[in-house]
From TrEMBL:
<protein>
    <submittedName>
        <fullName>DUF4870 domain-containing protein</fullName>
    </submittedName>
</protein>
<keyword id="KW-0812">Transmembrane</keyword>
<dbReference type="Pfam" id="PF09685">
    <property type="entry name" value="MamF_MmsF"/>
</dbReference>
<keyword id="KW-0472">Membrane</keyword>
<dbReference type="InterPro" id="IPR019109">
    <property type="entry name" value="MamF_MmsF"/>
</dbReference>
<feature type="transmembrane region" description="Helical">
    <location>
        <begin position="104"/>
        <end position="133"/>
    </location>
</feature>
<keyword id="KW-1133">Transmembrane helix</keyword>
<feature type="transmembrane region" description="Helical">
    <location>
        <begin position="59"/>
        <end position="84"/>
    </location>
</feature>
């Protein structure tokens, strides 16, 4: 039987991932700290700590893949359309002949990667809140699209 203290600790693990908006890597540091101190006291806290960390690690992996797709696409598109002599010799650099037609496929891939990244970050916020609510009610919550790194 899980006590209110265990439910609160598990809920705080979920909510502590929101610290990423104020402290870099707070979404890993604070859940690990709370989980590691409370995981031996309750299976409920241990389960939720693993779920939160697996979700955050999965999002990190997905974000890195999307960034690895988007950044080179945009760099290649820029370098294909900007003449080097305009960069080196001209003080009044203006893009007059930027050709989107030749790179439309690459740009579409890059824009889709950025949009998917945005949807991922927005859904992360709402899933964290939803998981915290479910956990505070004493229900086990499993995040979608999560790779089980920690078992």
């Amino acid at each position: 039987m899980d006590t209110i203290t265990h439910k609160n600790a598990a809920t705080f693990i979920h909510l502590s991932t929101l610290s990423q908006y104020f402290i870099p890597f707070g979404n890993y540091i604070f859940p690990i700290l709370v989980w590691s101190t409370k995981k031996d006291e309750s299976d409920f806290v241990d389960y939720n700590g693993k779920q939160v960390l697996n979700f955050q690690l999965s999002l990190l992996l997905y974000s890195l893949v999307l960034i690895a797709i988007a950044v080179p696409v945009f760099i290649i598109t820029i370098f294909n359309n900007v003449p080097f002599d305009a960069i080196v010799h001209d003080d009044n650099f203006v893009l007059n002949n930027f050709n989107f037609d030749a790179n439309m496929g690459l740009l579409t891939i890059g824009i889709m990667a950025v949009l998917i990244f945005g949807v991922l970050k927005i859904s992360e916020f709402f899933l964290i809140i939803y998981g915290a609510i479910k956990t505070s009610n004493g229900e086990k919550f499993k995040y979608p699209i999560t790779i089980p790194f920690i078992k």
